[in-house]
Amino acid sequence: MIDQLIRKMRIASVANKVCTSKNTNRHIKKNLIPRSKRDLRNFWSVILATSMGVTGVIWGVSEMKWLQSMELGIYDRMLRLRHREPIDRRLLLVTITEEDIKREKWPLSDQTVNQLLKKLASYQPRVVGLNIYRPQQKYKDLGNNVAGSGQVIATCLLSNIGRSEVPPPGNIPIDNIGFDDVVTDNQVDQVIRRGLLFAEPTEKDGKCQTEFSFGTLLAITYLELQGIRYTFGQNEELQVGKAIFHRLDKNAGGYQDVDTNGYQILLNYRHPDDLAQQVTLTQVLTGKVKASLIKDRLVIIGATANSVHPGYYTPYSSLSDQSPRLSRTIIHAQVASQIISAALDGRAIVNYWSDWLEWLWIWSYAVIGAILSKKWRHPVPLTIALIMVLGFSLAIVTIFSWQAIWIPFVRPVLCLIISDVAVISYTSYQVERQNQIILSQVQKQQQAIEEMNSLWEEKTQPPTQIDQFDFVDAATSWDEDLLLAGRYQIVKSLGSGGFGRTYLVEDTQNNNQHHICVVKQLIPARGKFLQVARRLFNTEAEILAIVGAHPQIPQLLGYFEDGQEFYLVQEYIVGHTLSQELPPVTGAKSQSFVIAMLLEILEILSFIHEHHVIHRDIKPSNIMRRHQDNRLCLIDFGAVKLIQPQINPSTESATVSIGTRGYSPPEQLAGHPRLSSDIYALGMIGIQAITGNFPQELPLDPQTGNVVWRDLVNVSDHLADILDKMVCYNFGDRYFSTTSVIEDLSRNLF
Fold first, then answer.
1. 482 has pLDDT over 80
2. In the chain, which residues fall in CATH 1.10.510.10?
3. 617 has catalytic annotation
4. Which of 420, 617, 636, 678 is catalytic?
């Protein structure tokens, strides 16, 4: 009798979906917001708060330039991964190599340079660029043969920190002079990623008074001879033909507050092997170069020997088949080729998103990371989802790079990972906090049960018999105008028992989706029993308030006390029990049905087990198929019990035996349930589904006590092994957690 009394006092069991809303005495908390909307609002509040916070952190880190080197490294890799372009046949590079220097000596004499220019002029190049430095006094006769034609472009160097300016040749007009300076990412890795097109002379009275870079002037001169001129259009941006070269922003792509003095653009490198045809100084001087390689071309002359200048790092420096550094001549040739190709061929100019679009892109990954960790709590699907998102991101960045558009990669990925970790940490904190609440409530519950035992021993006659009789007698009718708690209009009776009755009611104060709900009425014994029952009732509802947060666990809408009677208000779910889908109502089920069923219920059990709570009455009639979305819901949580970690079996006191014959494992029937007890019950449901036999009809192995069933049906060994492990007689041989079962079942799927 005491077992029955205690179970009836723990009346939070439901035939429908339960979630909680705390209430005291006669007051009911009104859930005016439907559960789906409330859950959705809570879901997005966590997502938005996390994503905005993580994005703010990444923004702060970016402002400190801690991520700039990584973004630039990805940018370099994207450049190297692009498809190879055809060689630019409008250019010809005349390189001065170490072998040429050994033959002609350095610096080259006037005679050698003039001989070279004269040789080239005989082949009718369109423009000749001469990138050679020598003391001014030795430029006396330099270029006399071709300088007057306006086809020779020479160079000078602007003054810089630790370096004086280098003047241009004296007999070449200033309009044919371009500065040889380049810009490197000095604060990062010394790599040249930007092209300096224009700059103000650094010395007002200096000799290097040109505003054009050497490569820019070469391209503009070449195009002007073809009738294509440059202009500065809207926003003072350079336009050559139809190509517009946007001035580089200080926060372009992965850059953060970079120095953009002058007129800078991002270099759209050609692969070094595909830039232009190359010949050596010696080959030209000895007449070993075909005239077709020079006629109407832009010919650029410059030293590539390391003894003259070690050169500069580029995004291609890390390639094993390339020189670690490239000379200034090659860099300017890249600039000239980029301008000419954009104007004549429509070749893409490296572009990037605006700041607001970049941060929208970065923030979206914080949102995705938060959503993934909120949706998939299990590490296996979560990891797979993250890998898929990372692969997708890499593909997007690569595709955009093929279109010469630079978008961030490192910052979005960091947002994805950090937001994922943040939500997991927050969820873990919430679970731990809820576990503490549950632990506190269960301790109160255990004290109440012990008190009830003591009171029962003091009574010589059960005080509940009169109450029970009166209630059952009154169950045949009720006042149709009666409003429970002043708001719940009874529609019909759903059932009754020795200590309570269940009604289908209409909530007259709520017009949302829960206006039709279930009220479960409990009439406990009077006197001292009432106080204990009240404590049991309240603590059980508090536990269900936390456990019921899962969308597939029925919702408790409120609870209250009225006239020393207790009421639970529960959501009414339209659906049918799993019993109607299993044998003997239907035939034996397929493996795919069993696996899908097990996975769906295991996901629910993972949630409640995470709070160290077991259900203790897993059976087909306590699993409902909700018609609204066809999902399985776990109901009847009146038998919940907290399993505290590190319990010593020798000192653990037995609890009230709750369960159903055939589905309950032996340790639960003995009053010692464990988390694996729910796994046992679910495994028996799986065996029932696939064999068509009730659990109590299956024979037992006399040696081990395990269920014998595999000879009744053809089933894969993998699934059979999983089910056998779920229903081992000895709980120590079973799966320890639902996570392990899910992992094994998932392997069976894939």
1. no
2. 575-750
3. yes
4. 617
